[in-house]
């Protein structure tokens, strides 16, 4: 995606990326909220390869995937089965990885266009100098546009 520490730590990449925008539908690591700060602290504590900064897509995606697994197990209750896990998670319409994601994700109608958010949000980051800046200092939300092919 281009929004990670690798861009900031490489002088060549940083020079090439000046004033370029990157988007993330995931966490805002530039001006992190409390859940994002907790995630970064957990990564520092439990992942010896994480040296700080902006995690790449693979790392934060894995963190969110693990959080989703925990959520599914919590919803399935004591003695969870695969069927209970899937059934309960597919009834969840308000997942946001404990506040990490700017858009609530619904697992109702899983695998169909109806599960997509009506007003998805994302952060737009611009590299200025040696730091990313959050466009308008907030997540930008839009409306689904249906296009006929």
Please explain how this structure is put together.
This protein is α+β, with helices and mostly antiparallel strands and 149 residues long. It contains five helices and four strands. It has helices at 5-9, 11-16, 34-46, 57-76, 82-89, and strands at 21-24, 121-128, 131-134, 140-141. Strands 1, 2, 3 and 4 form a four-stranded antiparallel β-sheet that branches. Helix 4 packs across helix 5. It starts with a helix and ends in an 8-residue tail after the last strand.
Largest sheet: 4 strands, antiparallel
Shape, please?
Answer: globular
What is the rounded distance between the termini? 27 Å
Query: How many strands?
Result: 4
Average pLDDT value? 93
The multimeric state of the shown protein is single chain
Low-confidence stretches: none
Q: Tell me the fraction of residues in β-strands, as a range.
A: 5-15%
């Amino acid at each position: 995606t281009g929004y990670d520490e690798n861009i900031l730590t490489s002088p060549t990449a940083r020079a090439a990326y000046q004033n370029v925008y990157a988007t993330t539908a995931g966490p805002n690591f530039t001006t992190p909220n409390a859940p994002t700060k907790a995630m970064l602290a957990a990564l520092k504590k439990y992942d010896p390869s994480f040296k700080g900064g902006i995690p790449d897509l693979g790392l934060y995606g894995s963190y969110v995937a693990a959080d989703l697994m925990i959520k599914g197990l919590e919803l399935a209750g004591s003695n969870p089965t695969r069927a209970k896990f899937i059934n309960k998670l597919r009834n969840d319409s308000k997942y946001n990885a404990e506040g990490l994601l700017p858009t609530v994700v619904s697992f109702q109608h899983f695998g169909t266009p109806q599960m997509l958010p009506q007003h998805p949000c994302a952060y737009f980051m611009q590299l200025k100098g040696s730091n990313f800046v959050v466009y308008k200092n907030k997540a930008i939300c839009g409306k689904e546009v249906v296009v006929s092919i």
